[in-house]
Amino acid sequence: MQVIPKIIHQTWKSSELPADMLAFQQSWITHHPHWEYRLWTDQQNRQFLQTHYPWFLKIYDRYSENICRVDAIRYFILMHHGGVFIDLDFECLQPLDDFLDGKELVFGLEPSAHVELSQSQIRGLIHIVCPSLMASRAKHPFWSHVCQALVESKQLPGVLDATGPFLLTRAYDTFLAKDSITLASSEIFYPVTKFDCWDGKLDDPEFRQAVIQKALAVHHWHGTWFQFGNSQANPQALTKAALPLSLMVQGRIVLSAKFRHQLFQALELHQEQPPLISCMMVTKHRIAKAKLAIQCFQNQTYPHKELVIVDDDENNDLAQYVLNLGDTSIRHVHLAPQYQTLGELRNLALSHASGTYACQWDDDDLVDPLRLEIQLSALQALNAEACFLQRWLMWWPEQRRVATSRTRIWEGSILCRRDKLPAYPTQRQGEDTIVSQQILQTCRVALLDQPQLYLYIVHQENTFQAEHFEQHWQKASARFENNAYEVLMDGLAEQMPVLDYLKLLGRRAAPDPVSSAMLRGLQPDNQVIEQASTHNAETLISAASSPELNQFPPVLILTPVKNAASVLSRYVDNLFNLSYPHDRLSVGLLESDSEDGSFTWLQQHLGELQAEFRNVHLYKCDLQFSSSLPRWTPSIQFQRRSILAKSRNRLLQQSLQDEVWVLWLDVDVVEYPADIIQQLLQPGKDIIVPHCVVGPDRHSFDTNTFQFKSEAKNQDWSRFVLDGIIQPPRGEGRLYLEDLRSHPLTKVDSIGATMLLIKADLHRDGLLFPPFSYRQYIETEGLAMMAQDMGYTCWGMPQLEIVHVDA
Fold it and tell me: Cα-flanking dihedrals φ and ψ of residue 624, to 5°?
């Protein structure tokens, strides 16, 4: 009995197929006359998701490449309907009925030659599970596993890792119940390699007959989206490619799109006089490298530019070099050595700049000739005030390796309106991180993902130590070594003076002529190596130096839930409205003892949350506590708060991963500023709470946050002790944040957790919520007393109000 339904699924952007695909389509219909055939259009695909899996639409719509949507939809269609999903460039040779009989889920393996390519080797793959032909029964549990993988991989930069064969391979390798899955050898569905197809070998009857003897079908590998490699290895493709571009406003990405660069001529059509860009370079003791940086400036295709050089070297050699160039667009400011900080020198360069825009131009890096042109075009396309690169190339020339960086805001790539660029702090390192953070908070910022525009060079004179750059290598989104290194550097040498840089090092100036010729003949897959894991897209914005400068460290929001169905929708809406980058936020929820369907509601909306945030955890743990009495009744306080402490501790232990901060948030806090996390982080305190009120400018709701009145801390509280914990009447010996509104920030003796921000390492060091009487306090108050005993101070922000349901 056949478990897999007799349905053939294929997809195209419309119902009109390309002429060269019609014969392939007909081959499936001819060999399966009694099967149902369905051609899904782009419009039908989206409608299908809207109807059956609306939680995934946000991810689906945000994919930067349509091929990602084509990949993703097939998983959902097979999960829902079952059948066989087949790419249009697949030719059927024999019916599938006998082969599929009795099977539940079938995939085919790509040829071993594909596994040997650099892309596969860098990921450590031993096989590649291909999504071009898949057969499945409906509702197979593997598809839920794939859906989770799609969520985790939504921001990975490469199609292969985000939705394609590398994602499917990872999903298969991590799926525990493999007994119901059949992996067909490559000779069944993929008897020829992509290179055989591209070389036209299938047109040779003798070759075709030899390779398809055991095949039921043959994939013709028409995937033109990947045939021609990546612009990292083909820099000229920048002039034609649609480039990934995002818009960030006040630290939050509000738009992701594709940007097609039309070169400088497009700017001239819109402006009689395009704006002047002032490139600012600070240098000392690096005349040879500085000359190459100047060369990169002169090679820029954007003509309306100037280079301001601030040089505090003891000699005048660079000044003489600039003078001999006779280039009026370059100005050299020579200072007597005064040991000024890098920040001070950058400010001096800025004071000499006269352009509408300012661009940081480091003296030891190399840039593509199109850098200024493309960054300005991207900035103007979004009506932005600044532009940063989200990734760049990092080169270790002495170690013969290159990496495409992880995704983050790279301060050194800044192009910004000069009137929006704040003064650099007077620091010797990390000065551009502070400036970049201010720009991200105050400007419309274009984020461009084109790493080949900038080659950051790691050498012995960098500001940061080797350990810092080794961390970048480990977290890189792509790594190039050995043959792949040679190919990439061969391409970059056509755009930047990399060979001249190698000569400075006394190294071999170019690849060996024989090996270079061989490498130029390598297939496109050898030219681009994108390493992926579910954590590769970890950082959109982080400081280039120390954690203290990291503006958007990962935050874990934790919420216990009980009988909260009436406020859950508002709770989720508020999370979605947070301006803190959502890919830096994780959410943990623990529901217990609800009688109003809270857990069911959370289950139904879990996918929506997972599609939006970095990680989402949902747990159920009934602790068998219920009471008909109001929750503030003294006689139930010990039991109620002991249970709540246990819930918090269990939620924390199960959810905390690599986050730097934990934000405790009650489910019935119904109103708070969108930038509440940034405001709580700003004072730099380890434990801090806002002012939780019952309404704007009204009295405090959270009376667990308090400051002892003078002399009250040491008074005899025994007459207020019930069940081992102090329970005084409101105001007895205590000041609440409502009494301290004249202070923007104040120390407090105890804290509540309607909203509470704690440095995660404090929890890791043992700071938990006591479910017992700790110095006659319990739960959040007990945590405050424990924190004091550990040497930490609790803080409150009386003027920063959040609103709780008045209960």
Answer: 60, 50
